[in-house]
Amino acid sequence: MDEIVRKAMAKWPQVPALYGWLGLDRRGRWLLQGKVVEREPLIDFIGRNYEHDELGRWFFQNGPQRAYIELAYTPWVLRANGQGDLETHTREPVTAINACWLDDNGSLLLEWKRGVGLLDDSDLSWAFERLTDARGEPMAEAALLAALDSLPNADADAVFLNYGGQRLTLAAVQSADVPALFGFQRKPQATANES
């Protein structure tokens, strides 16, 4: 968090929070009242001051005011950079992945040290290049698609994701279960004592 933000919070501790103004789309773009934020300094400022509270509500701390963020899906969106490594929509490097899932809509979810992130769908080719069978061998497209289709019913490890020296089993998850599973709120609301 920026030092100027910390000082503003200390100076004005009782500023009411905002709800419904800021969002994060499935591509990792900040939305201000539904419009994509395009100014790089503002994008960077939001990213540096992006956090969550104990209720799983993600927010941007804008000086003394907290602006809660409506999430299109997950609190993080991950992208492949030019070297094949992952980074978040806030440009934080992702050096290790703890687990990975394919949801019922075909979205790839990756858990890293700060929570769960959706892989930007423009980087799905990055994932396909890293998916292997149980022997660690690349899979032909037809075999991979068949394995992914049967993933929710698979009894054994069928598909793996290789990243940063790790080999992770690709599991299935229902998209509706993701917020509860990872402890976040997609559409934060004020609590009774905040109203």
UniProtKB/TrEMBL annotation:
Pfam families: DUF2944. InterPro entries: DUF2944 (IPR021332). It comes from the Bacteria. This is DUF2946 domain-containing protein.
